# Entry
Amino acid sequence: MSFDRSIKIAPSILAADFAAFGAECAAVEAQGADWIHVDVMDGHFVPNITFGPATCAAIRPHIRGVMDVHLMIAPADPYLAGFAQAGADIITVHAEAGPHLHRSLQAIRGLGCKAGVALNPATPASAVAHVLDEIDLICVMTVNPGFGGQSFIDMTGKVRELRQMIGNRAVHIEIDGGVTPETAPLVAAAGADVLVAGSAVFKGGSVADPAPYGENIRAIRAAAEKATGVMA
Ligand code: DX5
Ligand code: ZN
# Structure
């Protein structure tokens, strides 16, 4: 994975057809998705259960680009190797999921994956102050994790603070939750470069009719790029 701060759109398969994950990944990538965001939930760290390493392994052959795995599980350490073997390019753990974040991040990199840390809305930017050299991505939650289709919680102040803390390190700032063409400019202007979107990408389309996926992705990307001054 090469690093640049161009705007990337990462559809979350939480909003996809659960009976057709492989076809949905292929369809949304063909319609312009940069990454595929995979929301793993355990019913313990968050009040919902989704899927695990077996689903990641099953969809891996259908994803040409980056598989961005977001672990909303606690503990996460016992499962890191399973997600790495399943083909994750990025594994993101929550800062709130356990007492040894530094060790978890080192373990992810030790498995050959890029390491991400996710921050719930109430968690301050300072939570990553001592692991900035152990990470490749910070996922700023703009909803309380567990479900798609929720309303955006404004975290632009935290995004700006993180952008300052990162400096010129090759660390992505990812926004996760409630991203739409209306909210994307706010976070892009504050310094975010990866935008996760579930309902705003998958709405109106299907594997049989994926064109709306492309329209939705283009609308989010254009709104974000306009806010960053990048000519569309
Ligand atoms: C929530 C997940 C998000 C969610 C995004 O716990 O981490 O990735 O699926 O869905 P939307 O874009 O619909 O808010
Ligand atoms: Zn997510």
User: Anything to note?
Assistant: The longest strand covers residues 35-41. The chain has one domain: 8-228.
